[in-house]
Amino acid sequence: MVCMPASVGYIASDLGFTINWHKFTPPSQCITLLGLNIDAIRGIVHIPEKKMQEITDSADLWSNKQTASKKELQSLARKLAWAAKCAKAIPLAFNP
Q1: Alpha carbon of 1 to those of 4, 18, 76: distances in Å?
Q2: What's the pLDDT tens digit per position in 23-71?
């Protein structure tokens, strides 16, 4: 017997589990996990476009700055450190 994902959700709900239907998604081979897009079919992991745009916009903003607060520096450092970790980990995750 094959169950459709929605019917599994309804069964779980009938058994007393609380289902967050907003977050409920059917099985997929492309997912976003820890801020990275993972395509299991093609073996590709990449940083989402929105996140890349945010990093690029920050870099553009910083290219014209002459002074910055500690909070602004910390924010930039967090973004760049996250991107660097992703760039380092991506090739290792799907090494053929």
Answers
A1: 10, 24, 52
A2: 766 777 888 877 888 887 877 778 888 888 988 888 888 888 889 899 9
Q: Phi and psi of 30, rounded to 5°? A: -125, 115
Structural domain harbouring 15 = 5-93
> Is the Cβ–Cβ distance between 46 and 36 less than 8 Å?
yes
Q: How many structural domains is the chain composed of?
A: 1
CA 68/CA 30 separation, integer angstroms: 39
Q: What are the CA-CA distances from residue 62 to residues 51, 69, 74, 87, 92 (Å)?
A: 17, 12, 13, 21, 31
Angle at 17 between CA 15 and CA 23, to 5 degrees: 135
Q: Would the pTM of this model clear 0.70, i.e. be above it?
A: no
> How far apart are alpha carbons 96 and 91 in whole angstroms?
9
Phi and psi, residue 36, nearest 5°: -115, 145
